[in-house]
Write a structure and sequence with these properties.
The chain is α/β, with parallel strands linked by helices. The protein is 41% helix and 19% strand. The chain has a seven-stranded parallel β-sheet with strand order 10-9-11-8-7-12-13, with helices on both faces. A hairpin with a 7-residue loop joins strand 14 and strand 15.
């Protein structure tokens, strides 16, 4: 029945209700928002059996998904507890709304301040990950925004169960239920209506594969906070400690292969003496290695990498590996093939590391640490709505501050320009 509703009218009506809720949220004190999120976390825990049952139904219907996508979709008691805890973490974060960014006084005595304010109504379009329903809702509420959520069809039952729990908790705390709305249809035309929603939505955040992000960027008539694929690199410099290099590389690639922070390409300095050991360690851990001819010379079991491999976000236990000429070779390779998401260097030479950190144009650059730290929680930001790889408004893990804008506030004593 819902799929027969005109998508434009549906999104327009949801947007009108969200706008009214956003006006309420924008003026709520910090403790009211925090209390609502704590109630939402409690409702998630109380509804654990129903949420897990809904997720199992999604998993049963998703047999044709890749292992990486199934891993993103799957919930268990531990993961659901982590989702609830993340909502509570957001509730405990400093409220950005009302923060004074800076203050200046003009020669005529006019006092000007830039003050953080909510963006308004935010649309989030996402695939596979039911945790995004809770993360996005919590972040939007705490930052004073209303959210319209549109999850993928593979997680529809999980998303609805999580949304129901969140709405129950927020309602118990006196926050308008329309502050968090879940699009009730999987009709793809609803996504088009969101993207065409100038005046309905103030910003759209896509979180999913390359196809989804490309569609959003091509069709959107509202501002987009883009999260491109994570074609991430680890460069092992000739000065790297071998034990550290092995630990970082294995964690970056294999801790969880299906997340956007996973390493996809390993770059090894030609001067590094243990390149063969790194390749062997990856293979021994169950990772397929595709390398250039120099890497193949180290291990005959390595397949030959194609040009496409250097540009691929595998999201599974496959890694491209290349031998490069020092840090400049690594920087050049990343510039040609990287997605500006997360790149890391393992090195003992501080000067080399600082050159890498300064020259690599990615949202996150790391020295002697796994790329799997590309996560808002690990950055102390609580939950994240995504990792922005563009250059405007917000970059890297987008949490509360990234979901605000600012306005200028002037206080005068009767000044006129005359």
């Amino acid at each position: 029945m819902l799929d027969t509703i005109d998508p434009g009218a549906l999104i327009g009506a949801m947007g009108a209700r969200a706008r009214a809720a956003a006006r309420v949220l924008a003026s709520l004190p910090t403790e009211r928002k925090a209390a609502a999120l704590r109630a939402a976390a409690a409702a998630l825990r109380a509804r654990t059996p129903a949420i897990l049952a809904a997720n199992q139904a999604d998993m049963d219907a998703a047999a044709d998904l890749s292992p990486a996508m199934r891993d993103r979709l799957r919930l268990d008691p531990t993961r659901l507890e982590s989702i609830a805890a993340a909502v509570e973490t957001v509730a405990a974060l400093p409220d950005p709304v009302g923060q004074v960014i800076d203050t200046t006084e003009r020669p005529n005595g006019l006092r000007l301040q830039r003050v953080r304010v909510p963006i308004g109504v935010i649309g989030i379009i996402y695939e596979s990950r039911p945790n995004v329903t809770a993360d996005a809702a919590a972040l939007c509420v705490m930052a004073g925004n209303a959210a319209i959520l549109r999850g993928g069809s593979e997680a529809v039952r999980s998303n609805r169960a999580i949304h129901a729990a969140l709405a129950e908790g927020l309602g118990q705390a006196g926050v308008p239920a329309d502050a968090i709305q879940l699009v009730p249809t999987q009709d793809r035309a609803a996504v088009g209506a969101m993207l065409a929603g100038a005046g309905v939505l103030d910003m759209v955040v896509p979180r999913g594969g390359k196809g989804l992000v490309a569609r959003v960027q091509a069709e959107a008539r509202v501002p987009v906070l883009a999260h491109l694929d994570g074609n991430n690199h680890v460069y092992v410099d000739g000065s790297a400690d071998p034990a550290m290099a092995a630990a970082v590389v294995l964690d970056a690639k294999l801790r969880r292969t299906g997340i956007c922070g996973a390493m996809e390409t390993l770059l090894i300095d030609r001067a590094y003496s243990d390149a063969g050991a790194l390749v062997a360690a990856l293979r021994a851990a169950g990772c397929e290695v595709r390398g250039d001819t120099a890497v193949q010379a180290l291990d005959t079991a390595v397949g030959l990498a194609t040009e496409e491999d250097w540009d691929t976000e595998y999201l599974e236990a496959i890694s491209a590996v290349a031998i490069v000429d020092g840090v400049d070779g690594a920087i050049a390779h990343i510039a040609r093939h990287g997605s500006h998401h997360t790149d890391a260097i393992v090195a003992s030479d501080a000067a080399v590391a600082e050159r890498f950190l300064a020259a690599v144009d990615s949202a996150i650059v790391l020295w002697n640490a796994s790329t799997q730290f590309a996560d808002g929680g690990e950055f102390g930001l609580g939950a994240e709505i995504g990792i922005a790889t563009g250059r405007l408004h917000a970059r890297g893990p987008v949490a509360l501050e990234g979901l605000t804008t600012y306005k200028w506030v002037g206080r005068g004593t009767g000044q006129v320009r005359g």
